[in-house]
């Protein structure tokens, strides 16, 4: 499995938005909001204006890095979204949101998407009672996501109760605080699909 080698803080500065909710990334963005490199904002020169292609590329990179995907993986999502019925600009973010690692993150079981991906890869979660260790696994309506019983006492979950109490869960998911069960109650729609990237620009990029 390929890994993104660049640090999340540097990628966030390059894209101009925080690509992770981790404390370290947020502090970096507050302290050094400009792009990395010698021309990132300290040279005194006005930043170069991006071409239409450049704007589309940056949106694609932003989305790809937000979900921690490689180019081939991301393009496959676009291809699948474009072949589905309905609006591709809604299908693409919906497919990305319904990845298991992202669902784990949205439920609050992990602090960040990279952490969620790692926890899923280490087989700490079940879907409908079955162990799943594939981060790209696509959840479906009525799927129930739980922490495996023999993993719930791991140190990574020590502060889980407090975190879940403050977790804002999107409308397409339901979280039971008592049982620590998450359920997919609907497909992501409307506000649930709004992120820091513009899917229409990504579609234009791949449709050239």
From TrEMBL:
Claim: rRNA-binding is one of the keywords in the record: yes
Domain RNA-binding S4: 98-161
GO biological process: one example: translation
Presence of keyword Chaperone: no
Residue ranges constituting the Small ribosomal subunit protein uS4 N-terminal domain according to the UniProt record: 6-97
InterPro entries: Ribosomal_uS4, Ribosomal_uS4_bac-type, Ribosomal_uS4_CS, Ribosomal_uS4_N, S4_RNA-bd, S4_RNA-bd_sf
Coiled-coil ranges (or none): none
Sorted UniProt keywords: Ribonucleoprotein, Ribosomal protein, RNA-binding, rRNA-binding
Highest taxon above the source species: Bacteria
GO molecular function: rRNA binding; structural constituent of ribosome
Alphabetical list of Pfam families matching this protein: Ribosomal_S4, S4
Any GO CC annotation of this UniProt entry: small ribosomal subunit
Family affiliation: Belongs to the universal ribosomal protein uS4 family.
Quaternary structure, from the entry: Part of the 30S ribosomal subunit. Contacts protein S5. The interaction surface between S4 and S5 is involved in control of translational fidelity.
Protein's job: With S5 and S12 plays an important role in translational accuracy.
Protein name as it appears in the record: Small ribosomal subunit protein uS4
Organism: Candidatus Uhrbacteria bacterium CG_4_9_14_3_um_filter_41_35
Gene that specifies this protein: rpsD
